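Notes to self after the Tuesday call (sharing in case useful).
The group wants a holo model before anyone commits to mutagenesis around the pocket. I volunteered. Ligand is adenosine monophosphate. Logging inputs and output together so the record is complete.
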Amino acid sequence: MRLILLGPPGAGKGTQAQRIIQRYEIPQLSTGDMLRAAVAAGTEIGKRAQAVMDAGQLVSDEIVVGIVAERIEEADAKRGFVLDGFPRTLAQAEALDRMLDQKGLSIDCVIEFKVDEEALVGRIARRAAETEAAGLPVRKDDNPEVFRKRLKEFRDSTAAVAPFYRERGLLHAIDGMQPVDTVTQSITRVLDEECGVA
Ligand code: AMP
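Result:
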């Protein structure tokens, strides 16, 4: 199964991806996680991405498409994957399509998280507070000011991604403001009944 989770930052994509990968035994491919790992490791890509990420802006399509292309070649992604945080621009969606097409593969399902953006600002503040309370490092881009920039970036750049998949009959919306378990149930229902990938 090849699945895309689409929605603004803080919508719960990462949390739901964790549950999906357990149920379907496929890896989660989070470009945010991969970029943060590159920053932590001090790689060339990490150095190029760090300032852009800290400012809440989007890393270039070239970098992100490159890391996804490499990642989906790995053995664990052969059976499928959950993409979380990618594609974020129309150019990324088109590049992904070409990448998969060359392998005779395609996306099975795109799940769009519908959320209330103002409520997300509160959610992200909680995520930062919980992370801090657990003694873990807080993401620099999880403060309200940068978070609002990330939301704007989502509206400006990622708005074009949903129509791309809607036109292809792959887009399925769920209410991301429901309790976490209810969101999981909604996703499972979409996968089973609408995308037929159970
Ligand atoms: P996330 O963890 O998905 O919220 O991503 C954190 C940050 O990583 C974003 O604010 C961007 O700076 C960068 N990033 C992650 N995924 C992408 C992507 N697909 N395209 C461009 N930048 C990305």
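Two things stood out.
The two ends are 9 Å apart (CA to CA).
Residues 68 and 188 are 25 Å apart (CA to CA).
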